[in-house]
Amino acid sequence: MTRFETRIAGYGGQGVITLSKMIITASSLYEGLAGTQTEAYSAAARGGKCWAEVVIDLDKTVKVIDYPKALEPYDFLIILSEEAAADVKPNMIKKEPNTGYLIWDNSTIQKVRAAKKVDKSLGIPIQKMAVEKFGNIVYGNSILLGVFTILSGIFSEESALETIKKFVPSSTLDRNLESFELGKQEAIEFLNRLKEGNN
Amino acid sequence: MSNASFQEKRILTTGNYACAEGAITAGCLYFAGYPITPSSEIAAYMSRRLPQVNGTFVQMEDELASITSCFGASYTGKKAMTATSGPGLSLMAESIGLGVMLEVPTVIVTIMRGGPSTGQPTNASQSDVYQTRYASHGDYEIIVLAPSSVQEMYDLTIRAFNLSEKYRIPVIVASDGIVGQMMEVINIHSNIELVERKKPQVPPEKYKPFEAFDDDLVPGMAIAGTNYSFYVTGLTHDIEGDPQMTPEAAEVLIKRLCEKIKKARPQINDWEEKHLEDADTVILAYGINARGVPEVVEQARQKGYKVGLVRLKSLWPFPDELMERIGQMGVSKVIVCEMNNGMIIREVQRFQHLFTVSGITIPTTIPFSPKFIYEKLIKEV
Q1: Does domain A3-196 have CATH number 3.90.1150.10?
Q2: Residue B251 counted as domain residue
Q3: What are phi and psi of B218, to 5 degrees?
Q4: Are the beta carbons of B295 and A67 separated by less than 8 Å?
């Protein structure tokens, strides 16, 4: 199986859908991999329980994604709200080398119970970092894209940077690129900890 | 989504936007609609895009006005489209028959959501398959296409315009809330074949609006306001277009209206097939619900089961010839997968003298996962 299953869950307005669109833009439009993005619709995307999914096929010869919804166990699960955290079960995430990541925002979520039983799980104070360093939670998306780029490894950094340029207003580009770097660093440090076996 | 992005060859977009851009590519110059979830993005996109190509967008007061104004626009020689969802298509029901009767090229897009009634507006379904076929009263045939990807939203919308022009009939693109809303990269082709409607084949003084000269039974269509004067009506009419209340007039007209579509089935019907050459069991699906099937078929074949796949890209007129061919090829069982309580399966059951028919027919809002279909399949093979 060469499918890479990503799910992002939180509440509407956090950038759940935007992040999913950034991921498919980097992987499908710029990296040339077949992909499908689906999202919560209507009220859910405007303050309610919100989710978005991206399925990417890592085999470049595959032209279309068969089943369009992300299937469990996921390669990448990003959790941004308490409510979404409560739904996470350890077997929802792949237990394989180099994939199966659970990422959550530990500045908005007290605890993800399932995290202990997931090998590669990481809490990052995304919202706090975005507000403290850049003055606005919207930069959380670029932080997360940085994390995703490094950990997933499914598209190049160039594709990620092109994506950021496509998505953000030029007046905020510098701050978004800085946010992206910040996310990358978090991910690199996390990978080093995993290698050393002290996560 | 900026409009300029469609000048690129490869673009990342949603099904609804791809549908609207397909319409523009096909030469659509008129859109009338009333917003409804989950189809509203088509109208929104057309409202921005049509003025750029000197077209006209009108947000009408309701769905009844939307579809009939498309007929008016089409009779001025312009290609016209409306888009809606199940409840809106219910309101258009009467006029779908009018469109068939007036033989007016029009494209109607319906993005299926849950029903009956208000149902689940923000979710997908395939429960309006009968509605697309039988919405209107009277005895008629209609063409319905079923895209299953964002690419096909673009391709099949263009095809819908071509078929409606060729056969002078409303053509329905029946998609669903998932395909309409989801994002995928699509390829915009540069050499697209466009079909234009048949023009009058005689000078104005000899023109009879419903006189068909050719084997395809399609009369040449004059443009309103030109030297060709004509009258059209929803009443049963003769070739002059005048109302005729005789039994013969009904028989002649209805037969021709139905026959022009029935005899064109080989040209209209479209599907994707795989492994039919040695298949003992065939999974038949369409639209979003067909997306899980290829994986199931490959998985089953690896285990030694002789399973094939048929994905319908057109639903109506139903591809009888395909069913007969499947029977002749030695397929002993057809399993129909659809996100409704069983609609297309009843069409397939008409061929039970050729193979046995079973179904996974569930009125759900999420397409069947490969795992789910596989588990059902191995109980049957």
Answers
A1: no
A2: no
A3: -100, 120
A4: yes
